[in-house]
Amino acid sequence: MSAVPCVKLNSGALVPALAFGTATRHWQKPCAQHILAALKAGFRHIDTAELYNNQSSVGEALAQWEGGKREDIYITTKCSWGKLDKTVPNDPRAALLGALKEMNIDYVDLYLIHDPADTQPHTPTEAWAIMEQLRSEGLCKDIGVSNFGAKQLEQLSESWKVVPAVNQIELSPHCAHDPRTQAIISTCKAHNIALMPFSALTPIWVKPDEGYNPFSETPGVGYEVEARPLDLALEKIGRNKRMTESQVLLAWSWQMFGGPIATTSDKSWRMEEYIKTFDHAPLSAEELALITEVGKQKYYRRYPEQCHD
Ligand SMILES: NC(=O)c1ccc[n+]([C@@H]2O[C@H](COP(=O)([O-])OP(=O)(O)OC[C@H]3O[C@@H](n4cnc5c(N)ncnc54)[C@H](OP(=O)(O)O)[C@@H]3O)[C@@H](O)[C@H]2O)c1
Fold first, then answer.
1. 297, part of any domain
2. CA 21 to centroid of ligand 1, rounded, Å
3. Residue 48 CA: which ligand 1 atom is closest?
4. Tell me: the pLDDT tens digits for 175-209?
5. Residues 167, 194, 30, CA angle at the centre, nearest 5°?
């Protein structure tokens, strides 16, 4: 089986560089069989969330994974990006206890605040203090954030006792060049917070004229009829390196930002393809620069702008 490298977090913990996500393609749907297929393909990191409403699928997949142990899997989950029922207040402690019950485990490896805009009734700073407490109780090994902009990170830094281990953000060649993303990247670097990119493959599946559509369930389907800016570059590099387009983009993301990267699929052959990314020689400086430069031809962000203000 292909070996996926690990990322060392500021806590010293090692995290598999590719995470199998239970959203987007699996958004709010049971997906135990897909998680199981991902484990068989070689994924050792699962990225889920309270909001995805399918954490019990993680528990089911773990129970069905013959020969595998919970300790062999790195599990990331998040407390909520605004509950679907907005009348119920967000509560990081209740969300974590619920997640552990649904997954039938007694700790998660990484627990994130899903979105700074949706921590009410707490401020993000208050929510972070609760996260720190949960970590000290051993209910989660590490804590981090998601969708935090540079200013929001700086605000948190005024009172944090534990520096977030990661900031999970949308990061693709079509938004990496945005000044707000650049500010997040340098702020994370300054505080030794690992970037955890999601939607790294948007250049493949985004429609050339697509606007904000966070919950599109069928990325890629029917989009291939129109040319996208990175098509030629990905094809050229892929031919050179004998890699698929997805592998080229995952390699770009890994080499540029250091992962861990959250991706997903509902096809076992594609899960295997993602894992095999790391079997190939690294992209050259010229290949990385080509993707970076061509990516600037389009600005696209799938998730709300305010996440990065
Ligand atoms: N923290 C947050 O706010 C947040 C937001 C979004 C996502 N996430 C996490 O990140 C995970 C991944 O997000 P994402 O789905 O946006 O990631 P992505 O890696 O950009 O996209 C994955 C999709 O790309 C499609 N794909 C891959 N190669 C393709 C090709 N050659 N042609 C056509 N389609 C191709 C796959 O389609 P198939 O399924 O058909 O293989 C798959 O559904 C989520 O599940 C979630 O865990 C977090």
1. yes
2. 8
3. 47
4. 999 999 999 999 999 999 999 999 999 998 876 55
5. 55
Query: Is 4 within the bounds of a domain?
Result: no
What is the domain extent for residue 91?
14-308
State pLDDT tens for residues 13-35.
Answer: 999 999 999 998 999 899 999 99
Flag whether 114 is marked binding: yes
Is there a domain that residue 5 lies in?
no
pTM of the model: 0.94
| CATH, residue 100 | 3.20.20.100
Give the position, in ligand 1's atom list, of the atom nearest the Cα of 265.
Answer: 39
267 CA distance to ligand 1 middle (Å)? 12
What is the total count of domains within the chain? 1
Residue 1 maps to a domain: no
The b-or-e profile of 98-115 (16+ CB within 10 A means b, else e) is ebbebbebeebbbbbbbb
Give me 10's structure tokens.
Answer: 């500021």
Pairing relationship of beta strands 6-8 and 74-79 according to DSSP bridges: unpaired
Per the annotation, the verdict on 274 as an active-site residue is no
Residue ranges around ligand 1 (CB below 6 Å): 21-25, 47, 146-147, 168, 198-202, 204-205, 219-220, 245-246, 262-267, 270, 303
Decide the pairing of beta strands 18-21 and 108-113: unpaired
List, for residues 148-177, the tens digit of each pLDDT value: 999 999 999 999 999 999 999 999 999 999
Give the tokens for residue 201.
């493959």
For strand 108-113 and strand 74-79, is the pairing parallel, antiparallel, or unpaired? parallel
